[in-house]
Prior knowledge:
With about 280 residues, this protein is of the alpha/beta class. It has a single domain (about 5-275), classed as TIM Barrel (Alpha-Beta Barrel), CATH 3.20.20.150. Helix content is about 40%, strand content about 15%. It contains 9 helices and 10 strands. It has helices at about 15-25, 45-60, 80-95, 115-130, 155-165, 175-185, 190-200, 235-245, 265-275; strands spanning about 5, 30, 60-65, 100-105, 140, 170-175, 205-210, 215, 225, 255. Strands 1-2-3-4-5-6-7-10 form an 8-stranded parallel β-barrel, surrounded by 4 helices. Strands 8-9 form a two-stranded antiparallel ribbon. Helix 1 runs parallel beside helix 2 and helix 3 (about 80-95) packs across helix 4 (about 115-130). The radius of gyration is 18 Å and the shape is globular. The termini are close together. The mean pLDDT is about 95.
Amino acid sequence: MPSLGCHVSIRRGYLECARNALRMGAGAFQFFPKNPRSLHIKHYNQADAIECAAFCHEQGLVSITHSPYPTNLAEQGPELAELTVRSLQNDLEITEACGAIGVVVHFGKSRATDPLEGYRAIISCLNRVLQDWPGKALLLLENQAGEGSLMGSTLHELVQIRSMVNQPEKIGFCFDTCHAYGSGLWKKGKWSELEQLGTELGYWQQVKAVHFNDSLYPSGSFKDRHAQVGSGLIGIAQMSQVIQSPKLSAKPFILETAAGSDGTHKAEIELMRKLSAP
């Protein structure tokens, strides 16, 4: 069975974040390594991060982190591009210290007239971030919903970009169900077709985590609006196909949805557990 969990706040530190995930019955969790609205470098509490890693190892918890919202791999302005590189290196360092698998990052959006310039910027950014990175933590490229820019919304792009960087072994993928549905990559009732495409491209074997979110908008809407599992237009039946897919059975499944009425994700994690049972 896959490891199941949700996004958890680091307001009280990394160790407490992991403890909170366990209290909700999670076997996996995601957290922001620093302020999610800033690219500024965080001088983090290393002892707290090491304790988090030890606790997760003892409890069998797996985790991923998510880069801050302003992160844009396609940025071409030299000052902001440099800030992005340093921020992601900082994210990787914290992720490694906490014992997490990797840092989820989006392609972002390019302001260039020629789309190729955006892709070149992405490859350049990834190469710079990973050039001297000695750790095990990966950069996890996440598929986008196509809202505002279609960049990063296809498996072909993700696989191709990974193949073109200098050190592809340091890059994995994070598959987001809501984004896949919103972009039209996953068409209604066509999970088997997407599953086959991912197999042909060698995509699934590089997926290290799944964002398990229902969608408030229909397939092909290019809208990124998460809904609790079973409360959106993907629905229970289609979500069940994903969580029971043999291509994803060993991956952590992470909710990025609003907390329940009790302020936790306990009920939704339990629903995930039921859906994952064959």
